[in-house]
Design a protein that fits this description.
Number of helices: 9
CATH topology: Glutamine Phosphoribosylpyrophosphate, subunit 1, domain 1
Structural class: alpha+beta
Helix content: 25-40%
Mean pLDDT: 90
C-alpha cells in the first residue's frame, strides 16, 4: 500500500470514529429493569353500571359485606399458596351464590321470564380456557366452565349440550326458582313495561383475576346476562378474548358492561395485546381501551399483570370492585370516591 493510500485510509477511519456518538454513561440506554413482583395479587368485580348512591344503607352494607367476603376468600387462599385458577373459581362461586350480584342466585330475568347463565375461565399458564352459555339448571356455572376446560376437548359449550355435559360431570343442579330474587324480578317488570324489546336494564357480572405465588395468572367471569334479553342472546362473558382472558406473558382480565360492545372490540385481549406489542403497562392499556375505545357508560375491567399490579378501570358511574395483594392492600369500593 502506498503512503498516499495509507494516509487516506487513516483519515477515513478517523472520520468514522469521530462520527460515532459518545458512549452512554454506565446504566443509560439499557432496558428498564422489571418491577419487583408481588408474591400474589387479586382483583374482583361485581358488575358496572348506574349504581345510585342513595340506595338504602342496609342494601349498601350488604354489597360491601359481600365484596369483602369474596376478597377475603381469595386473599386467604393465595396467602396459603393456592393456584390462581383454583382461587378465581372459588371467589366467583361465592359471588354466584350471593344474591346481590347478577350471576347465579341473583341472575336477571330474560324476556321469557327465565334465567340463562354464562361463564368462562382461563388459565394464563397454558392459555387453556373453558366457557358455557345458556345454562338453566346449573347452580355454579363457573365450575362447569372449568370442567369444560379440564374434562373435555372443547372450549365452549352452549344450551342443551352444556346441560348434558353438566349431567355427565355430576355438578350441582337447581330449579329455575332458585335464581329468583325480588330485585331482579322488579327490574324485569320495569323493562317489560318500557317495551324495550331486546334492550333492558342491568348489565352486571361477577369476575376475579389473580396472580399466585408460582407466578401464574388466571381469570374467571360469570353472569346472568342482560335484563329482558331475547332470542338466546349471549354477551361477552363466555367469549374468550372479549370478556375473559389470561396469559402469563401479560395479564389476566375480567370485564363487565355492555356485552355487545365488549365483543365488538375484543376488549380483554386488546388490553393484553397492547401490553405485548405496544409495550404499554397494564394501567395504560386498560385505560386506553376503556376510556379511548369504548363509549362512556359501556362498563369496565379488572386486571392483574405478571408483576402483581392490579387495575380496576370503568367509565360508568360505579363498579362493585375490590383488590388485595401481598403488600397488605385490601380495599373494596363501588363509586369513584
Amino acid at each position: 500500500m502506498t503512503a498516499a493510500r495509507s494516509s487516506i485510509l487513516v483519515a477515513l477511519l478517523l472520520a468514522v470514529s469521530c462520527a460515532r456518538p459518545p458512549a452512554a454513561p454506565e446504566g443509560e440506554g439499557a432496558e428498564e429493569p422489571e418491577p419487583a413482583r408481588q408474591e400474589w395479587a387479586i382483583a374482583i368485580h361485581g358488575g358496572a353500571g348506574v349504581i345510585p348512591k342513595d340506595i338504602p344503607e342496609e342494601e349498601k352494607a350488604q354489597y360491601f359485606d359481600a365484596l369483602r367476603q369474596a376478597l377475603s376468600l381469595g386473599r386467604e387462599a393465595l396467602e396459603q399458596g393456592a393456584p390462581s385458577l383454583e382461587v378465581v373459581e372459588k371467589v366467583v362461586r361465592f359471588m354466584e351464590d350471593a344474591p346481590q350480584f347478577n350471576a347465579g342466585k341473583g341472575a336477571v330475568f330474560t324476556n321469557a321470564g327465565t334465567h340463562e347463565l354464562d361463564a368462562a375461565i382461563m388459565d394464563g399458564r397454558t392459555r387453556a380456557a373453558g366457557a358455557v352459555s345458556g345454562l338453566t339448571t346449573v347452580k355454579n356455572p363457573i365450575t362447569l366452565a372449568r370442567l369444560v376446560m379440564t374434562d373435555s376437548r372443547h372450549v365452549f359449550l352452549v344450551g342443551a349440550g352444556a346441560e348434558q355435559f353438566a349431567t355427565e360431570m355430576g355438578v350441582e343442579r337447581v330449579d329455575q326458582e332458585y335464581f329468583f330474587t325480588q330485585k331482579r324480578y322488579d327490574a324485569w317488570q320495569r323493562a317489560l313495561a318500557r317495551e324495550r324489546g331486546e334492550g333492558g336494564e342491568g348489565h352486571g357480572t361477577v369476575g376475579a383475576v389473580a396472580l399466585d405465588r408460582a407466578g401464574n395468572l388466571a381469570a374467571a367471569t360469570s353472569t346472568g346476562g342482560l335484563t329482558n334479553k331475547r332470542f338466546g342472546r349471549v354477551g361477552d362473558v363466555p367469549v374468550i378474548g372479549a370478556g375473559t382472558y389470561a396469559d402469563n406473558a401479560t395479564c389476566a382480565i375480567s370485564a363487565t358492561g355492555k356485552g355487545e360492545q365488549f365483543i365488538r372490540n375484543t376488549v380483554a385481549v386488546d388490553v393484553a395485546h397492547r401490553m405485548a406489542y405496544a409495550g404499554q403497562s397494564l394501567e395504560e392499556a386498560a385505560r386506553a381501551v376503556i376510556e379511548g375505545v369504548l363509549e362512556p357508560g359501556d362498563g369496565g375491567v379488572i386486571g392483574v399483570d405478571r408483576w402483581g399490579t392490579t387495575v380496576l378501570v370503568f367509565n360508568t358511574p360505579g363498579m362493585f370492585r375490590g383488590a388485595a395483594d401481598a403488600s397488605g392492600r385490601f380495599a373494596v369500593a363501588i363509586w369513584e370516591d
